[in-house]
Amino acid sequence: MKNIILLPVYNDWKSLNLLLEQINKKIKFTYILVVNDASTEKPYFKKDKFKQIKKIKVLTLKKKLGSQKAISIGLDYLKKTEKFFYVTIMDSDGEDSPKQLNKMLSLAKKNKKNIITSHRTKRNESLLIQLGYKIHLLISFIFTWHWISFGNFSTMHSNNLKKIDLNNTWYAYPPSILKDSNTIKVFATRQARYFGDSKVSPLKLVEHSLRILVIFYGRFLLSSSLIMLISLFLNKDFFYFTIIILTLFNALLVTIKFKHKPTKPVNYNDFLRSAIIYK
Predict the structure, then answer these.
(1) pLDDT above 80 for 122
(2) Between the CA atoms of 245, 246, 247 and 251, what dihedral angle is there, to the nearest 10 degrees?
(3) What tens digit of pLDDT does each residue of 68-117 get?
(4) Is 4 helix (H, G, I), strand (E, B) or coil?
(5) Whole-number Å distance between alpha carbons of 45 and 57
(6) Dihedrals φ, ψ of 5, to 5°?
(7) By the 8 A CB rule, do 59 and 269 touch?
(8) DSSP one-letter string for 93-139
(9) pTM of the model
(10) Per the count of CB atoms within 10 A, which of 23, 50, 72, 241 is most buried?
């Protein structure tokens, strides 16, 4: 059965090549699917550095969509072109440790009905970003009832793709699999990027939080109702303040929903410019 690693990338081919060197040392005969998010730089691969990797295919998108949509397109491509396989989704910048690959794959083989997710025990970022991330986790937990402390790094048997709504992964991949699937946790430190600074910013954390709440919109409405009820018993002025804040929050969610909503079910053919096998 094929072992596939799905990697979204935008221009960072230097990091991708270093990651592939590390993957080459961990797992033999791996099929690498790179989703090129309309990079302005031409793809290149140091093939002599990863001889154990059996195949590298690059899907190049027509326009830049962002990593979450690139992952969604990659999963749709695999779902429609492959039959039975294991797939691992990773970031291509080095923040996800290749040392986890064998452990996650082994667990996925023993638990085919579950998705293995790598949760972050430590982050190598500024204190401001780390604080923002904790706030993001707390807000997400209050409104979704899930502590979503993992990113894209996950491994699953292909049968799990039948459960996942790819229209939800269009907004954000991690909460989508929590909503539709059962998961098993592993824990690892989030590593520093191979090159350059982290691209996470306070603004991106805010938008990511909103995308998560769009996926769990029903729970957001229920949690909002409970918060308003509690605030009513605490203080009338606080109740009115809560209504204003939650109404503004809801308006933001509606904006995000229509900004990122697919016009029709996700289909890789609608976004694909080319599919090239490099090895």
Answers:
(1) no
(2) 100
(3) 999 999 999 999 999 999 999 999 999 999 999 999 999 999 999 999 99
(4) strand
(5) 11
(6) -115, 125
(7) no
(8) TS-S-GGGHHHHHHHHHH-TTEEEEEEEEEE-S-HHHHHHHHHHHHH
(9) 0.92
(10) 72
